[in-house]
Design goal:
about 40% helix, about 20% strand, alpha+beta, single chain, two-stranded antiparallel sheet, elongated, about 270 residues
């Protein structure tokens, strides 16, 4: 995200809060805010306060210029407009602040838009950012955490599913109204050691097909079409004791690709 010098100048008081639209930040809080995007500045009570004895707004302007053109400026702005920062100041209205702020960055091709209760920077040159976490240990625990974070949908395609703990977590999310869909292999393992999936969720059992009895061997889960869990790990009791790997990828574009594959499998007869 690259802003013009004029835009940087015009938004600095939204960061410090000196324009009366966003919560006013002390020098200490301004440093804390910028430290969330990688800076390590310290407020010196007995040595001039802000680094290099800058005023609060001079410091904001200097640091905005340093991170301009990087993803850090996106994160910083989104942190400023986090609704939690407005919650304790009844005199500040986040919608009004966004209304005044967004036209300033629109001159450079961006806007600040409310999405799922948060305000996000939207712009044509912003690639889909994918955050990846790789896990080799406590895999079941990692999956449970992602299931519990789901708000809207959980779509699972795994060859074998016999883990009662994960089944219970999914059942609990369905009771909260989350859409659960499942694809598994139609075989003896799931029949004998699995569950009556169809009695709980929308389920498709995929039969082995072709000359060599090829099986559906996927092991992925798409959550809210923004998070994907995938890797070697089947959702089975045995897998908990194997050497396994999962990747947790957070990114809309990659999640949509997995979701599209899931839908294609659902459509196949």
């Amino acid at each position: 995200m690259k802003l013009s010098d004029l835009t940087i100048e015009s938004i600095k008081e939204f960061i410090s809060g000196d324009n009366g639209l966003t919560p006013r930040l002390t020098g200490q809080k301004i440093l804390k805010l910028f430290n969330t995007v990688g800076f390590k500045d310290v407020y010196k009570f007995d040595g001039g306060g802000m680094p290099n004895s800058l005023s609060r707004n001079e410091y904001v302007l200097e640091k905005l210029n340093e991170i301009n053109g990087t993803k850090k400026i996106i994160k910083l702005i989104e942190n400023v407009f986090d609704p939690r920062n407005f919650a304790n100041d009844a005199s500040k209205n986040i919608d009004k602040a966004v209304e005044k702020f967004s036209p300033l960055i629109q001159q450079d091709g961006y806007r600040l838009e409310g999405i799922d209760g948060q305000f996000k920077i939207i712009g044509a040159d912003l690639p889909d950012e994918v955050e990846v976490e790789i896990h080799f240990e406590d895999i079941q625990t990692q999956i449970i955490e992602q299931i519990r974070n789901a708000k809207f949908s959980i779509w699972i395609a795994v060859a074998w599913f016999t883990d009662k703990v994960l089944m219970t977590e999914l059942y609990n999310k369905q009771k909260e109204g989350v859409n659960i869909r499942l694809i598994v292999i139609d075989d003896e393992i799931n029949e004998k050691y699995g569950f009556k999936y169809e009695n709980i969720f929308e389920t498709k059992r995929v039969k082995p097909n072709g000359k060599y009895k090829n099986i559906m061997h996927h092991k992925f889960c798409v959550i809210d079409v923004k998070t994907v869990i995938h890797g070697s790990y089947n959702w089975t009791n045995k897998a908990r004791w194997n050497k396994e790997t999962i990747s947790i990828d957070n990114g809309r574009e990659i999640a949509e690709k997995f979701a599209s594959e899931f839908i294609e499998m659902i459509k196949q007869k």
